[in-house]
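Hi all, posting the design record for the shared folder.

TITLE: backbone redesign
STEP: 1 of 1
STRUCTURE INPUT:
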């Protein structure tokens, strides 16, 4: 897992809340992207790899204006938004791209991966199973499902890998997964056979996979075959020097072989990675003690204890923030806006960097008619992070209610530039023109928005109103009839038609 795919514990728990609060199963980060990815999108990916989040955010928004329907671009934008703290925006970006591509295996499998990261195993499984239904002839979908079951220790892993192998014969990574599944179920004889076959295929592959060697090394370590496990950990690390797990595994084999100095060197390196820090420090403490380095052992043990305490505190804080957000959001959903505003306000006071709290506070104060306070809350969010389409659209609505149509329009345009599929932003822009009685401008925007896939009845209702107010009564009637045809259950559309028929 790369550094940009790891969230702080606090962020993970807040993401988990947000996903639950809007009824959407999972964000995700693209684990792999198409090999023929556009050069520009690849350069943005490289910015994200270097953790240049603000530059990446600006570039991906620009890219998506040219390619609004691109699944890889939307998933990458969501990833970037999560890392800059705009979790609600990330979630809605993914909701909108899924509305366009509900059967996208790339998007669904990425969402499943983050669901698993967030420990939402039921959702992850459902999404991965959906991928196999949508693309049953794709071995990668079955391998992802097998990997999921393997990580969960479930017996279904073996069958998933069998499906993958039937579709991709001689795939060393699939065979290694099957071997690991056999080992997990106690079939070590079958596991060794499969691992040896996977290794033979891996050696003749155009691009040998380090994970094949790593999984075999783990198997051998479990069997206490330390010399052989050391050989395969070394091979995995040689193939992929960034595979920290292989270096950590090598250190474990070296410890069992009592090669203390070599183990010490490996553990010092793996202890720099947060994901493996505690385990590495604990093993390093043991190595120091075996070498008689009492002072170093004491210092390392103290460091491990301190880091463990910090992680526990951070996780507790993340839980507290997520719980507070969830409570505030529940009050908002129940339309208890005053109580919700107080809860969000407390959050912004205690944790001003939790941007979701500022957005929630702005929504609630707007509902209460406290437009100045709402505007202050949303501008507080924007001052901290300017890349939120949700915030700019909300600010635009408040400015429009305050009859500041020019300023409102600018905010709606900013929101649309950040997320080209954000229909509400386009509706807001049209509404700003209608407030100024610039109906032809509003009609132009609404007619374009109407052609968007997934455009709702609201676009047609606004277009009907704009046409009527522009003196185009027949066109308005034609538009409302079309709205009723597409949305026959909508009572507002029928009421608008009745009103138009009565007008002369």
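Okay, here is what came back for every position:
SEQUENCE:
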């Amino acid at each position: 897992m790369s550094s940009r795919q790891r969230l702080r514990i606090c962020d993970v728990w807040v993401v988990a809340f947000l996903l639950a609060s809007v009824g959407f199963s999972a964000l995700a980060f693209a684990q792999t992207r198409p090999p023929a990815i556009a050069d520009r999108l690849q350069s943005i990916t490289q910015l994200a790899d270097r953790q240049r989040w603000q530059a990446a955010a600006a570039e991906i928004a620009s890219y998506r204006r040219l390619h609004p329907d691109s699944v890889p671009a939307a998933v990458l934008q969501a990833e970037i938004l999560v890392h800059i703290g705009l979790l609600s925006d990330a979630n809605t970006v993914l909701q909108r791209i899924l509305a366009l591509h509900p059967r996208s295996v790339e998007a669904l499998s990425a969402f499943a991966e983050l669901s698993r990261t967030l420990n939402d195993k039921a959702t992850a499984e459902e999404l991965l199973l959906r991928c196999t239904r949508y693309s049953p002839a794709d071995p990668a979908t079955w391998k992802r499902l097998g990997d999921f079951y393997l990580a969960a220790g479930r017996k279904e892993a073996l069958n998933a890998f069998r499906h993958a192998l039937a579709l991709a014969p001689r795939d060393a990574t699939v065979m290694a997964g099957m071997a690991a599944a056999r080992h997990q179920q106690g079939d070590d004889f079958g596991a060794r056979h499969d691992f040896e076959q996977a290794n033979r295929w891996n050696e003749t592959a155009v691009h040998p996979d380090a994970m094949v060697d790593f999984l075999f090394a783990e198997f051998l370590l479990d069997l206490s075959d330390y010399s052989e496990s050391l050989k395969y950990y070394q091979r995995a690390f040689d193939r992929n020097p960034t595979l920290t797990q292989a270096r950590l595994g090598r250190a474990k084999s070296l410890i069992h072989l009592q090669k203390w100095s070599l183990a010490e060197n490996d553990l010092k390196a793996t202890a720099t990675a947060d994901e493996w820090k505690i385990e590495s420090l604990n093993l390093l403490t043991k190595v120091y003690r075996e070498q008689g380095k009492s002072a170093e052992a004491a210092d390392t043990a103290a460091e491990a204890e301190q880091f463990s305490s910090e992680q526990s505190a951070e996780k507790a804080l993340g839980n507290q923030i997520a719980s507070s957000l969830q409570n505030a959001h529940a009050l908002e959903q129940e339309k208890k806006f005053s109580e919700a505003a107080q809860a969000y306000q407390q959050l912004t006071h205690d944790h001003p960097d939790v941007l979701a709290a500022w957005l929630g506070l702005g929504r609630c104060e707007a509902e209460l008619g406290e437009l100045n306070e709402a505007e202050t809350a949303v501008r507080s969010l924007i001052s901290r992070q300017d890349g939120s389409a949700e915030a700019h659209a909300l600010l635009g609505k408040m400015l429009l209610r305050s009859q500041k149509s020019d300023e409102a329009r600018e905010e709606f345009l900013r929101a649309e530039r950040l997320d080209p599929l954000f229909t509400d932003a386009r509706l807001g822009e049209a509404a700003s023109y209608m407030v100024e009685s610039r109906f032809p401008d509003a009609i132009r925007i609404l007619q374009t928005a109407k052609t968007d896939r997934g455009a709702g009845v609201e676009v047609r209702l606004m277009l009907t109103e704009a046409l009527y107010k522009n003196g185009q009564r027949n066109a308005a009637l034609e538009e409302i009839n079309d709205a009723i045809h597409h949305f026959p259950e909508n009572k507002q559309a029928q009421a608008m038609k009745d009103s138009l028929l009565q007008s002369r």
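COMMENT: The radius of gyration is 28 Å.
Let me know if anyone wants the other runs.
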